[in-house]
Amino acid sequence: MHQYLLPGEAAKQLEDLLQQVRSSTHNFLGYPVSKDFDYTPLLPFLQFPMNNLGDPFVSSTYNVGSREMEREVVAFFAKLFRAEAHNWWGYVTNGGSEGNLYGLYLARELYPNGMVYYSESTHYSVQKNLHLLNMPNIIIRSQENGEMDYEDLQNAIRINRHMPVIILANIGTTMTEARDDVRQIKSILKDMAVRNHYIHVDGALSGSYSAFIEPRPAFDFADGADSIAISGHKFIGSPIPCGVVIAKKSNRDRIARSVAYIGSMDTTITGSRNGHSPLFLWYAIQRMGEAGLKARAEHSLRMAAYAVEQLRENGVEAWRNENSITVVFPSPSIEVIQQWQLATENGYSHIICMPNITTAQIDAFVKSVTLEHTGLVC
Ligand SMILES: *Cc1c(COP(=O)(O)O)cnc(C)c1O
Questions:
Q1: pTM for the whole thing?
Q2: Pick the CATH number of 43-285 from 2.60.120.200, 3.20.190.10, 3.40.640.10, 1.50.10.10
Q3: Positions modified as N6-(pyridoxal phosphate)lysine (predicted)?
Q4: Residue percentage of the chain with pLDDT more than 90
C-alpha cells in the first residue's frame, strides 16, 4: 500500500475504494457505460496540466492541451453525422448534458422568443438546462414505446404558432432507448409552414452508433438536425465523463458575435476545459475507426436480441425498440435490481447491452431473474 505515498489510514482508504470500484464495475448491466477500454498508453499524459480552454478552432496562447486531436474528434463525428461540408463546428464537452445545454443555448440565441418542445421520456437534465436558460417549454406525450407522440406535437405547435419552434429530439430515450424521427418532425414543421425552427438531437447513447445501423434511423444533419450531442463515456467508453457536441458553423458564428459583445470570443460553456478527455476519444477513434465502432454496435445489437429471446423463453415479458440495445422488462425483486444495478422506473427495469457484454453475463442475469420468478430464491 505504501505505493500511494500516503499515511497508512489514507492509503487504506484509497485501496478500499479501488477494490470497491473494481467489484461494482464488474456487475453492472443497468447503466449505458462501456467498460472495455484500455487507455494505459495515455498514462504519461496524466503528468501534465492539460487544458483546452476556449474554442478548439480558435488558437490560444495556452499550449498544454490536445486541441488538434479535439478538432479531429469533432471532424470525425461531423462527417459521421452528415454535416454539410465546411458548415460544422463543435467541441468535446463534459458529457451529453453539456452538449444539450449548448444546443439549447444556440437555439435560444437564434430564437430568443422560441418555445421548446420535448417528450415526457426526455432525460431529466434537459429540464434542468431549460431552467438555467430560462426557456419556455412544453412537454409532449410519448407513445407506449417512449417515442414522441407526433400528433400531440403537432397540436401543441398549432396552439403556439406565433412562436419559433425549438425541438429537443431524443435519439435513444433513457428508459427504453426510443428514437424520435427527425425526418418526421421536420415534415410536420414543413406542413405547418413553421419557418423559424431549430432541432437539437440528444443522442447521448444511441447517437454514437445510430450511423452504423441499417436502415439508418433519421437523426442527423442530413435528416434535419441543427445540432447533435452525444456522451463519450457511454458507447465509446472513457474513464472520465465526456461528450461531443456538433453544431452548424453558421449558427455558431452568429452567436460568436453576441459573445464578442461581452468581450470574449469563447463560444464554449465553461472556462477551462478538459484536455485529457479529447485524447481518450481520439485514441478510441484511431484504434477502432468506423469499422470497429460498427462491429461494436452490431455485437451490442446481437446481445440485445439474445437477451430478449432468453428472457421471453423463461417467461419474462421482455421487449426492446427496433435496433436498440436496451432491453426492458417488468422490475424484478430489489435484490436482483441491486445485484445488477438496474435502472428502474414505473415498474419497469432495463439492462443495456453495452459492447463489453457477453452471452455468459446475459445467461447469468436471466438465471437470477427467472430463479426468483419460480420462487427458488428468497
Ligand atoms: C445519459 C443521458 C444524458 C446525459 O448525458 P451525460 O453524459 O450523463 O451528461 C442525456 N440524455 C440521455 C438520453 C441520456 O441517456
A1: 0.95
A2: 3.40.640.10
A3: 234
A4: 85
